[in-house]
């Protein structure tokens, strides 16, 4: 990613917060399988400040869309408290294979991270896991494709993907939790919007939307979405 490319993905910027449209396929930080990651490119977002912004939360590597960055320590602490208290509103869009049993509802199902020798780790529904709650609503559909908006009130790893599978409609392109581990489709999951309360009495509420990535446009359009 070049400096121009990351600057072109800025959705919002003020003195405290930057909201970035993270591309699908890019991990947010370093890991054993992530030599290329977003933190390598954040220096381009200093805008003349001494330090680059830092991550206020995380998105999965294959999820695109709204990612919140804090521009200084005080902002990061306030954002951290808001995320911990579930005061930041997060909405996700997905295209799923199959149909949920209703047009809206809530999945309240704890999830647990498990590992298997030679297979890495996965997340599964398990009463021994952490609380995970996701509200959802169908926005459109065509045949076996369903466009769903998800509103997680907790922020567990792979929460939406596992809850979608639990509903019987795994995400299109999900090689971990879908029906086809050899799928060539990219994951159809977008962090569509974030709503951030004022970080101080003099500040304004922040509400930002991210556009669907190119690989989701065809399926979303088939389900009734329009860019107009």
Automatic annotation (TrEMBL):
Q: What are this entry's molecular-function GO terms?
A: catalytic activity, acting on RNA; pseudouridine synthase activity; RNA binding
Q: Which UniProt keywords apply?
A: Isomerase
Q: Does the keyword tRNA processing apply?
A: no
Q: List the CDD domains.
A: PseudoU_synth_RluA_like (cd02869)
Keyword Secreted present in the record's keywords: the answer is no
| Pfam families on file | PseudoU_synth_2
Q: What InterPro entries does the record point to?
A: PsdUridine_synth_cat_dom_sf (IPR020103), PsdUridine_synth_RluA-like_CS (IPR006224), PsdUridine_synth_RsuA/RluA (IPR006145), RluA_PseudoU_synthase (IPR050188)
Q: Name one GO biological process term.
A: enzyme-directed rRNA pseudouridine synthesis
Occurrences of domain Pseudouridine synthase RsuA/RluA-like (ranges): 16-166
Family, per entry = Belongs to the pseudouridine synthase RluA family.
PANTHER family with a match to the protein in the record: MITOCHONDRIAL RNA PSEUDOURIDINE SYNTHASE (PTHR21600), RIBOSOMAL LARGE SUBUNIT PSEUDOURIDINE SYNTHASE D (PTHR21600:SF44)
Q: What is this protein called?
A: RNA pseudouridine synthase
Output the lineage of the source organism: Bacteria, Pseudomonadati, Pseudomonadota, Alphaproteobacteria, Rhodospirillales
């Amino acid at each position: 990613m070049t400096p121009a490319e990351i600057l072109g993905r800025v959705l919002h910027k003020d003195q405290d917060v930057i909201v970035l449209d993270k591309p699908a396929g890019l991990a947010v930080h370093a890991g054993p399988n992530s030599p290329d990651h977003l933190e390598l490119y954040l220096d381009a977002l200093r805008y003349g400040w001494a330090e680059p912004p830092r991550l206020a939360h995380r998105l999965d590597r294959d999820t695109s869309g709204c990612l919140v960055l804090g521009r200084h320590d005080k902002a990061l602490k306030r954002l951290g408290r808001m995320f911990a208290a579930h005061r930041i509103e997060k909405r996700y869009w997905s295209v799923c294979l199959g149909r949920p049993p209703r047009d809206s509802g809530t999945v309240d199902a704890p999830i647990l991270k498990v590992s298997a020798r030679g297979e890495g780790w996965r997340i599964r529904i398990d009463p021994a896991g952490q609380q995970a709650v996701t509200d959802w609503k169908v926005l459109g559909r065509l045949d076996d494709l369903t466009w769903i908006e998800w509103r997680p009130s907790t922020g567990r790893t792979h929460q939406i993907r596992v809850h979608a599978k639990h509903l019987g409609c795994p995400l299109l392109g999900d090689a971990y939790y879908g029906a086809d581990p050899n799928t060539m489709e990219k994951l159809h999951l977008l962090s569509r919007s974030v709503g951030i309360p004022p970080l101080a009495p003099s500040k304004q509420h922040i509400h930002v939307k991210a556009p669907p990535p190119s690989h989701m446009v065809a399926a979303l359009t088939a389900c009734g979405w329009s860019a107009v």
